[in-house]
Design brief:
There is one protein chain. This protein is of the alpha/beta class and 442 residues long. It has helices spanning 8-12, 15-18, 27-32, 45-60, 92-99, 101-109, 122-146, 161-182, 186-214, 219-240, 245-259, 282-304, 322-330, 332-338, 377-402, 405-410, 413-441, and strands at 35-41, 65-71, 74-75, 118-119, 313-318, 341-347, 358-361, 366-369. The strands form three sheets. It has a four-stranded mixed β-sheet with strand order 6-5-8-7, with helices on both faces. A two-stranded parallel ribbon has the order 1-2. It is globular, with a radius of gyration of 28 Å.
Length: 442
Amino acid sequence: QDEDTLDTWFSSALWPFSTLGWPEKTEDLDYFYPTDVLVTGYDIIFFWVIRMIFSGYEQMGDKPFKTVLFHGLVRDEQGRKMSKSLGNGIDPLDVIDKYGADALRFTLITGNAPGNDMRFSYDRVEASRNFANKIWNASRFIMMNLDGKTVTKPEDSALEDADKWILSKCNDMVREVTENLEKFELGIAASKIYDFVWESLCDWYIEMVKPRLYNSDDMSSQNAALWTLENVLVDSLKVLHPYMPFVTEEIYCTLKEETGIEGAESIMISDWPVYSKERHFAREASDIEIIKEAVKGIRNVRSQMNVAPSRKAEVIVVSEDAGVREAFENGKLFFSALAYASDVKIQADNEGVSENDVSIVTAQANIYIPFAELVDIDEEIKRLEKEEKRLNGELKRSNSMLSNEKFLAKAPEAKINEEKEKLEHYKKMMQEVTTRLEQLKK
């Protein structure tokens, strides 16, 4: 065996400058060395990264890169390293043929922290493929409604609360994702984009604006909804593009061709979205969250009682807070649709509320639905008793925290105040639940 050898990593160590024309002093070498970021697995830090660094200082007098991002290894579903001997390797081309390159890319980055290994799972790839389908279908819906219409930028006064809510949510998402990417928190950024697109845009906002697109004769309101849909979609595609380049480019170019949106010919060279203070609508965002909580409560109760979505019923919203009542008034059109309501009444007291009405207690309002012909009173009592038990647990936890001297001494003031607010909300909700139970048990 020849003892006078160098392993292959020593020639690999020359890569940062040898690819740029070294040892000649080329224009590329002068411009690109040192480079910015090296991305590599943690398993070759000593073999490759260290050798590139000392070779760079030795041959060029400078480090070869400013930042090194270490990623983990992709393991099989049992957590084993993929190897020829185990035969557990996966050909990415096979995965791409079945699910698409975007789905594979998104799977490998989602929920993955720098330096941590991840387990490959076809279920996760399928979930990523479903996400791509979700974006595709949402884009088709938006383009279908934009077809044949001239959309103009509305004044802020023409934007409805739901429009301002999604614009504000998108604005915050852009800011947070940009910050995450700058810190190389790629998996966290991907999760935030996923949550925004799937939940906020597709599951909520699109459903909120359907009554305005289909049933409203108010063309100003319809224009505001379409403009908002188009802008939020484009910003979402741009921040998603590094993760899913193919589907985002296809949608962007089609949107540009069919609707004439402003911007670059390709999403790859378009401007990255930037956070804007003008798109921060705190009050409207808060109001829509209040309505969302009510809708979730109504849907949960209807689901527990097996009430079909086609079965509509009157919904009574009771709140002493005038601001909360105004929020429901402003969102009455979409709230009625999302809550499967035949009619919505918004009032400050319980006038007209029957003891037999089903109640949904939220932190900001009480919702009553006269389901007398649909509801099993005994089941409603069981449901409220379950809620009472949950609230007792929350009250116990909150009281325990606020009576803990260590927590009060070490926790930030904002955290303590937040816990105090939660405690007051729980007390109010418990009072409503207790009162309702007493009424039903009579």
